[in-house]
Design brief:
The protein is mainly β. It has helices at residues 2-13, 22-25; strands spanning 32-40, 44-51, 58-65, 70-74, 78-79, 84-91, 98-110, 114-131, 134-140, 146-156, 162-167, 172-183, 188-198, 205-215, 224-233, 237-240, 244-250, 254-267, 269-274, 280-281, 289-299, 305-315, 323-332. The protein has 3 domains: 2-126, Immunoglobulins (Immunoglobulin-like), CATH 2.60.40; 135-233, Immunoglobulins (Immunoglobulin-like), CATH 2.60.40; 237-332, Immunoglobulins (Immunoglobulin-like, Sandwich), CATH 2.60.40.10. 5% of the residues lie in helices and 61% in strands. 24% of the residues are buried.
Length: 335
């Protein structure tokens, strides 16, 4: 019955001459991305977000690309209502330089057959090389600054320069120092040391961002060279999943999910505050241990709509502070 209703809606919304693909495209946050000009040897990727906004389950049956220079990979294939998946697209910068355009086709077989085409664009430079391809910080303790280094080499004009390093993350900065500038057999060789700093105030969590080498290239597109930075700032205490999603819940029903709270040393949970005590309930364990499995129950209201709330977990680890967990659910009409 639900399949028939969804098919009826799709049929009514789109004329007969328009393929029934629009329902699938609406699940994507965007359908194109321009990487700009990319240095040879660098590691760059982009993430398309897919969210199932329908009551029916969605299934990605396949992903293909028109260019071997791109490698797309979905984080999951099955999406229930309000589930999200990531389609991560990597650019292979070891291929021949030049313009790299790709069409990525994502195929669905549920709830109905459909295809969504995504488009990526990049220009692979042959004159700029970054080593290593990604600046790796590894795992870093919170509250501790860290530095890593890479090299940038250029072959071309004698007056080519890196003017500065820009970052959209206030905790991530970069500096360059020119190491050499010398005539080569065909062109000038220019080399820089790139020093990337992660400051002590960087929030806990996974970090993957780009900083930009701003050069004196006349072409504005070529004047910004992206360099990927990756690392993990590991807190002394972690909670997962965060956010805690209950997915689709019928009005009036109750559903339980588990939170895992982990620390390097044993700890106790002293209290839990919720933004809605009627809808969110959990029992506080009394023992002290490094890992707690905390069941959380969501009691859906009688009316449909989107629910959002917060759990604030207080422990005896005062140096860590309270742990905030966002909670969400989609309340469906009662059967």
């Amino acid at each position: 019955m639900r399949h028939w209703l969804l098919f009826s809606v799709l049929t009514l919304c789109f004329p007969a001459h328009v393929p029934g693909q629009e329902w699938a495209r609406k699940m994507f946050n965007k359908t194109s991305h321009d990487f700009g000009m990319v240095a040879r040897g660098s590691e760059v990727k982009y993430t398309f977000t897919i969210e199932n906004i329908y009551e029916e389950d969605a299934h990605i049956s396949g992903v293909r690309t028109s260019c071997r220079c791109t490698v797309p990979k979905p984080s999951k294939h099955y999406l229930k209502t309000w589930d999200k998946a990531e389609l991560i697209v990597d650019i292979d910068t070891r291929t021949d330089p030049g313009q790299k355009d790709a069409t990525i086709t994502v195929t669905f077989d549920k709830p109905f057959p459909a295809e969504v085409q995504l488009h990526t664009h990049a220009y692979l430079r042959s004159d700029v090389v970054v080593r290593p391809g990604v600046v790796q910080f590894g795992t870093v303790d919170p509250g501790v600054g860290w530095r890593q280094q890479a090299t940038v080499s250029f072959a071309g004009r004698s007056d080519w320069k890196i003017l500065r390093v820009e970052s959209n993350n206030p905790h991530l900065t970069g500096q360059v120092v020119e190491k050499y500038r010398r005539p080569g057999k065909i062109a000038y060789d220019v080399g820089y040391d790139l020093q990337v700093t992660l400051d002590a105030g960087t929030p806990s969590g996974y970090l993957r961002e780009e900083i930009y080498l701003i050069t004196n290239d006349v072409n504005p597109r070529a004047a910004r060279v992206p360099v990927t930075v990756e690392g993990l700032v590991a807190s002394r205490m972690s909670v997962r999943p965060n956010p805690l999603s209950f997915g689709a819940v019928r009005a009036g029903q109750s559903v339980s999910r588990n939170l895992i709270i982990q620390s390097k040393t044993p700890f106790r949970i002293l209290g839990i505050l919720t933004t809605d005590n009627r809808r969110l309930r959990c029992n506080i364990p009394q023992d002290s241990k490094p890992v707690h499995l905390l069941p959380v129950t969501f009691a859906a209201p009688d009316t449909e709509g989107k629910f959002q709330g917060t759990l604030r977990i207080k422990t005896d680890q005062e140096q860590v502070g309270p742990l905030d967990v966002k909670v969400d659910a989609q309340v469906l009409p009662p059967k």
